[in-house]
Amino acid sequence: MIEVIKKGGKKEKFNLNKIKKSLILAVEASNLPQEKKNEIVEKITKDVLDFAKRKKQVFTAEIEAKILLELEESYPEVAKIWREHRIQKKK
Fold first, then answer.
1. Per-domain residue ranges for the chain?
2. How far from 41 is each of 9, 26, 64, 81, CA to CA, in Å?
3. How does pLDDT run across 16-33, given as a tens digit for each residue?
């Protein structure tokens, strides 16, 4: 089991659905074709899962950095939307 350490120190079980949900919100706000949106969500979700599987514990900041890095490399428009969503969520 992979454990996620939240910003406040709270620990919880790794939940891939939370990651997928945040990615879906970002890609749906983009102007990309639906097929491309689905492709992005699946690719980034898989990459994050592969990253997390190598660890017993992972910080949310590490997960967020991995998502942002992957998005910035190939989908800067989606990266911008995702980043803005994260900032709004923290307010």
1. 3-90
2. 28, 9, 14, 14
3. 999 999 999 999 999 999
